[in-house]
Amino acid sequence: MFRINRREFIKSMAAGIGVVSFGPVFGSLAQDAGNSHIQTVLGPIKPDELGLTLIHEHVMVDFIGADEVNKDRYDPDEVVEVMQPYLEEIKALGVNGFAECTPMFLARDPEVLARLSKSVGMHIITNTGMYKEPYLPQYAFEKSAQELADMWIHEARNGIENTGIKPGFVKIAVNPGSLIPIQQKIVRAAARTSLATGLVIASHTGHGVAALETMDILEEEGLSPESYIFVHAGSESNQDFHFQVAERGAWVEYDHIGENSAAGALKLIKNMLEKGYEDQLLLSQDAGWYNVGQPKGGNIRGFGYIISEFMPMMVESGIDQNTVDKLMITNPAKALTVKSSGGAKAVSPGGKAVSTFGKVKGGK
Ligand SMILES: [Zn+2]
Which of 11, 30, 260, 333 could form a cystine bridge with 50, CB 3.0-4.6 A? Predict the structure, then answer.
């Protein structure tokens, strides 16, 4: 069942990288930095170079659908011009890392991201993988899981299209409820990509049953649960599902943080911390973006709220600063670190984070 082979195991042990379990063995980021990296659009960096990070945001999206999506539908110069001030705004607030979650066939454009990364001076990370209908090309239905994985692995190793720009994570999506066959195949393809490349899988999943079924497939493929991010977990109103996903060793991402959802998000976060899942929690806003097809990209939601408003709110509510830093700095870097073991399932099962240093003071 375990995909890790002896050679990889010895190699990773020699390198001092824990493949055995999740959480404690990761140790400090600095300790791992020599042996591991995060893949940005401008190349690899050490995990401790990432800094304050927004792990789920968008620079550009085109919702026209896979049949019509096309680079001729937008002017990259205009996209850069429109989006640069939004990135400069958060750069001034201290943000240094930015994971751009727009998948292929939804106007993923690594060259636009590389230009912004250079001009703003921010580490931007793009992705490989595929979304769901109507953002899937016909060939997604015809190719096997392995054929899709081979395409994504090729991108991870050689770069996207002919740009030479490599993705730093796998982004997919699943339908709500029980997974339909095409999404099962895409999850399986993502698992194989992750096993071959060490890239973490961020899956758009607004539903608890879908998250658990996704994990079943990933585990069946031999992938370690820490290679999976339950994206949009906040859309599942029954938090027991969030706990179950965390208990199995995966990441839970509350990426819906904004002015209107702040109180609810804070409650979800505190519940996760009280359960001891501080090492498996990710926060972001799913904000942005230049909406292709609308004049000047239409209405764009800025990226600053979580830094300027929500982080202070967390501290005021009794969450200590170290924990806030963990959620916004340490955890995103850990999640995005390319696993040298290829993300194979560990020798002992993953599971609940061991460290619980009582991170919530008072309050409830
Ligand atoms: Zn998103």
Answer: 333
